[in-house]
Amino acid sequence: MRNALAIAAREFEEKRFVAYAAVAFAIVPFILSVIPGINGRSPQETIALSSLIFATGFGVALAVMSGASFVGRDLSDNRMSFYFSRPVASASIWFGKLTAGLLMVVGCFAVIIAPAWLVVGEFWKSFWSLTLAESTKYVLTIALALFLITHVISTFARSRSPLIVIDFAAAVVCGLAIRYLIVLLATGWAVEVMKWTATALALALAVGIVAGGAWQLERGRTDRRRNHLALSQFLWGTMAAALLLAAGYVGWVLSVTPGDLSIDFHATRSTSGPFAMITGRSPGRGDYHAGFLLNTDDGSSVRIGNLSAVVYTRDGRSVIVPRMEGGVANLWIYRRDLKKPIDIGLTVEAQGLFVSDDGGRVATLSSLNILSVYDVAQKRSLASVRLPDGRYMRAFFVSPDVVRLYLNTKEKLKIVELDVRVRGLRETGSLATATFARIYPDAPAAHMLVRPERGADVVTLNDARTGALITTLASGTQVKTARFLRDGRIAIVDGPDSATVLHILSAAGAPQRDIPLGPARSSIFVGDDGTRCVLAVETAAGVGQLIAVDLNRGVIAQRVDKVVWVPSGTLDPRPPIEPLRDVFYGDYSDRKNHIVSWNPATGGKRRII
Fold it and tell me: How far is CA 170 from the centre of its chain?
């Protein structure tokens, strides 16, 4: 220790001119603050900004020059023998010179910044978005990192050894490996885990350089090439071990299975098909979110990354999965009859994504309000048009060749269609409405239910293509929701929160049956199988329920309490083609998160995760 301090003192003595320069740079901001035309809005602002600029520039430049010369230059100039001619251990030489270099960088930065801080004081934050402590932390971290890195580069370059080619290759391999690990974690939005991994690898690099410096002087002494070889072996050996540990940890994080998900999970469910998408976190894996596509027919699962925007086809046989990369989406399709997914071969900017009933056509809506239609089998664009001004609301394929959109404007609801055969967009109708309107078409998209979002307690039956009013179905009855059933009948839930009623009407709007539901302050249609209609309701006490209503007998056949319904991921507002199979819900009754599959026909339940 005494020898190391003596060497550090000698280094300070040789480079004392650097401290004099730092004092000069500390004075310059005060001179600038009194020069007219330079002092900015106030002297305090000039002192704060200029001192930070000088301290940053001086500290970074000093770190680079010191790191490149404090050992490498002594080796290249054959001056290292001076130290080894004394009874001094190689570790004392290394840590003495290292201590001097690091303290010189930190000390000069402090000499420049401290006077300004004492004068500006509490006004510092008003001139700079970062506090002094934050600014100091970032600048010194960068400076010290450059100090160590330039030492390595200097040692390698001054040795004039062909081994530098291997060092370059090792550096490239390490960089690619780190990037690969970070990308894997980024697919799961694991920001904290990425920070931990990057910090651990940065510390491993620092340890490799610092300990490797002592090792290089111990093994290489005054020989430049032996120093290079020793430092190279220690540094890349340390990084290899660190990368293996990091790869093992990342592999464990990514090895999560659907059954491990129990924190912050979300799911969507195909209403009439076997597919469900689940994302969530697992204990011990930080903020890494895993995503899986489940096939409930055979119990299989496929990792799809952390995505919550999968789109199920209306026939229930397929699901489109957009894999986001660099702001665009690569589209993949999963089908019930295929064991592996198929890359559609389309890369799109998918602000909105819609699929035809069988998944053969895909429509996307870009941020520039451009609607494009693609053929999946041919992997090509069929049409692309700019939509008229208006707030987008709903879009779906009426047929494989026609996409219909409902656009809300300030004055009315516009109905437009894009026909890929003529590649033209035309307005087919409109609906005058003073507020945002929700629309629910029937299966053939010939008629639709229209319900204003607010300001009017009414449900009307309209022509789905022209918007023409056919009849008013409910008005002033505290409507909660309305929807077409698969067979064309209409279901409306209304009434006060204390006594809601399910009304079943014919396709033309004629009343057929009223079924009391009991207390409910909100209601959402889940689906139907022709005999039963399933609703997700919230009681007046805020408790979630799933109820299966027998449409023939007019009674509630099944009920599940204290649940959170897992919504359908189908964006098409029409009823699904296939009947309702089972319903997913979140069960939190035992303070553990579970997703349960519930059969509304039999009341049977089974845990999914």
Answer: 31
Q: 403, 423 in Cβ contact below 8 A? A: no
Residue 341: partners with Cβ closer than 8 Å, 6 or more residues away = 302, 321, 332, 333, 334
Distance CA(34)–CA(141), nearest Å, equals: 32
Are 329 and 322 contacting, i.e. CB atoms less than 8 angstroms apart? yes
For 262-304, what is each residue's pLDDT tens digit?
A: 777 777 888 777 888 888 888 888 888 888 888 877 777 888 8
User: What's the DSSP call for residue 568?
Assistant: B
pLDDT tens, residue by residue, 578-596: 888 888 887 766 555 677 8
Query: Strand, helix or coil at 482?
Result: strand
**Cα torsion angle, 200, 165, 231, 147, sign:** negative
Q: How are beta strands 328-335 and 318-325 bridged, if at all?
A: antiparallel
Beta strands of 447-489 (E only): which ranges?
A: 447-452, 458-463, 469-475, 481-484
**Amino acid residing at 356:** S
Residue showing tokens 């994080």: 253
Distances (CA, A) of 65 to 371, 440, 467, 485: 56, 70, 75, 76
Q: Which helix (H) or strand (E) holds 419?
A: strand 412-419
CA 510, CA 21: separation in Å to the nearest integer? 92
Beta-carbon count within 10 A of 237 CB: 13
Residue listed under structure tokens 């889940």: 526
Mean pLDDT on 518-541: 87
What sign does the CA torsion over 242, 247, 250, 251 have? negative
What global pTM score does this model have?
0.72
Two tokens at 273? 């098909």
Helix (H), strand (E), coil (C) string for 548-567: EEECCCCEEEEEEECEEECC
Residue type for 163, please? L
Length of the chain: 609
